[in-house]
Design a protein that fits this description.
The structure holds 2 protein chains of 2 kinds.
Chain A (H helix, E strand, L loop, with lengths): L12 H16 L5 E2 L13 H10 L5 E6 L6 H13 L3 E2 L8 E5 L12 E5 L13 H9 L4 H14 L10 E3 L3 E3 L9 H4 L5 E6 L4 E5 L5 E3 L26 E5 L6 E5 L2 H9 L22
Parallel strand pairs in A: 2-3, 2-4, 4-5, 5-8
Antiparallel strand pairs in A: 1-9, 6-7, 6-10, 8-9, 11-12
Chain B lengths: L13 H17 L5 E2 L12 H10 L6 E3 L1 H4 L2 H10 L13 E4 L24 E5 L2 E11 L7 E6 L5 H4 L2 H5 L5 E6 L2 E5 L4 E6 L1
Parallel strand pairs in B: 2-3, 3-4, 4-7
Antiparallel strand pairs in B: 1-8, 5-6, 5-9, 7-8
Helix pairs in contact in B: 1-2
The chains are: A alpha/beta, B alpha/beta.
Chain lengths: 298, 202
């Protein structure tokens, strides 16, 4: 038998139609969580089953797919999802942000600016921004219906009362198109400004919670804050140790058991691109030919 | 009498044609006013345009109650084609339709008669697919809203002439509302409920 074991991009056509209809409504109502009949996928919940279903529903043979996990193309989650679609859809894959037409992401937005011909697909664990404040779905649904978001402001205010500043560092709530409060998925709040007026379409899939939502291109996305405590993106105050970038989101990496650590770009494609372009940080050990000889110990 | 063998065909490649058509419709919905082209073609019957037929094959199935305007529902070819290729139930009550197909825009019923969704579930609303004369030439309209970088201009020849005035009720209804997909042959433009349209005259 030469018959392929799977349909193109794994999902059956009826499932794709259902997801596609949900995506269209999600785009039409920016920030609103559309319920969908999430399927069981050949990977556990928490590994991106929602994002994978959205990607499977939009992906075509002409697409070039990039998958990142915390900014990295090289982690288990990113590699296995990339291989999953290379196998079931036969699509080209890349690690380059510029070349990709569909980017599936877990917990980061690439540093390189996105463009109009791209779709960014987020993997979302808990789509409901109000869930930890109000566990009942019936109630959070009504709060969204009435645009009753006082509770979220109380939560941010309690942060200020307790810590002196808004201590929420990731999954920082945003308001989309001046209507729906939305969870941007657990991206660092450093990434929130990139969602605003973004030229690319942003789709969010939550597999276990069975929700799809979207931000159309060029849509206003505002991080919630107060006049006297404006939103501030957070970043470690250091350059990247490998590429010396001053404006990228950094991971802290512990290097020994004596408290030494280094900060490197979380976005590996961005960091490698800068190093290839000749930018070198303090701990860059790469034997690039263009590296100035006087910096070596020889 | 038309037998199944005489029905116009569906997509040649069901899977990839549906994907390509969906991407055109998704791009149209994400970028209101921008004209997208539907490449894969299927057979059409009666008053149904080829773009409409492709959208039907891509999005309709047994889960999507379908409302047809008089000209569509009077065509037994259309009914048979839809039934055979999509399996979507054709219903008389427009207020519970997932999709509505309008071939004669001049006879578009009051938009309040379609499903507008609820404040809790605004997604449970009718997507109204209207066949129009042209999406390349005609009166000009200025569009603003999510998906549009500033202002988009649409040249279109549309019936009913007051469609965009009637769609203005989306403004006060939001998040409830009607999403419209305009089809002219293989061209498609979407006007989601967030889009504000101004006539520029001319």
């Amino acid at each position: 038998m030469n018959a392929p074991a799977y349909n193109f991009a794994y999902l059956d056509e009826q499932t794709k139609r259902m997801i596609r209809r949900a995506i269209l409504k999600a785009i039409a109502i920016p920030g609103y969580q559309v319920p969908f009949a999430s399927r069981e996928m050949p990977m556990p919940y928490g590994w991106g089953t929602g994002g994978v279903q959205v990607t499977a529903a939009i992906l075509g043979p002409q697409d070039v797919l990039k998958v990142i996990d915390q900014g990295s193309d090289d982690t288990t989650n990113a590699i296995s999802i990339r291989k999953f679609f290379a196998k079931t859809a036969g699509v080209a894959t890349t690690t380059s942000t510029d070349e990709a037409t569909v980017i599936q992401t877990r917990h980061r937005i690439p540093e390189t600016s996105l463009h109009e011909n791209q779709v960014l697909v987020y993997q979302v664990p808990i789509p409901e921004p109000l869930r930890f404040l109000e566990p009942r779905e019936t109630e959070t649904r009504r709060m969204h219906a009435l645009a009753e978001y006082g509770l979220m402001h109380v939560k941010l205010y309690e942060d200020i009362a307790r810590f002196g500043h808004i201590a929420t560092a990731y999954a920082y709530p945003v308001k989309v198109n001046a209507r729906y409060v939305m969870d941007p998925s657990p991206t660092p709040k450093f990434d929130n400004p990139k969602m605003d007026n973004c030229p690319a379409l942003q789709l969010f899939g939550a597999g276990r919670e069975k929700r799809i939502y979207a931000i159309p291109p060029y849509t206003q996305v505002v991080s919630l804050d107060f006049e006297d405590h404006p939103f501030e993106p957070y970043r470690f105050n250091a350059p990247c140790a490998l590429c010396a970038a001053e404006n990228s989101y950094l991971d802290e990496i512990v290097t020994d058991d004596k408290g030494s650590r280094m900060f490197v770009c979380s976005d590996t494609d961005y960091c490698e691109g800068r190093q290839a372009a000749g930018h070198h940080g303090a701990l860059s050990a790469a034997p690039y030919k263009d590296k100035a000889p006087e910096t070596s110990n020889g | 009498m038309t037998t199944i063998a005489e029905l116009p065909p569906g997509f040649v490649d069901k899977v990839l044609s549906a994907q390509s058509t969906f991407r055109s419709v998704m791009d149209a919905m994400a970028r209101p006013g921008a004209v997208q082209r539907i490449v894969p073609m299927a057979g059409t019957s009666g008053p149904m345009m080829r773009g409409t037929a492709a959208i039907a094959l891509t999005l309709f199935d047994h889960d999507t109650p379908l409302w047809l305007d008089a000209r569509m529902s009077e065509s037994s070819d259309v009914l048979k084609w839809l039934k055979f290729h999509t399996g979507a139930p054709v219903i008389q009550d427009s207020s519970i339709a997932a999709f509505a197909l309008i071939s004669d825009g001049g006879a578009l019923p009051s938009l309040e008669r379609f499903a507008l969704g609820t404040n809790e579930y605004p997604d449970r609303s009718t997507t109204v697919i209207i066949q129009v004369d042209s999406l390349d030439a005609g009166r000009s309209f200025e569009l603003r809203g999510p998906g549009i970088d500033g202002v988009a201009t649409l040249h279109a020849s549309i019936k009913p002439f007051d469609l965009f005035e009637r769609l203005r009720f989306n403004e006060t209804l939001f998040p409830r509302g009607i999403d419209v997909v305009l089809v002219a042959d293989d061209a498609v433009v979407a006007i989601p409920r967030t889009t504000r349209v101004m006539s520029k005259g001319g």
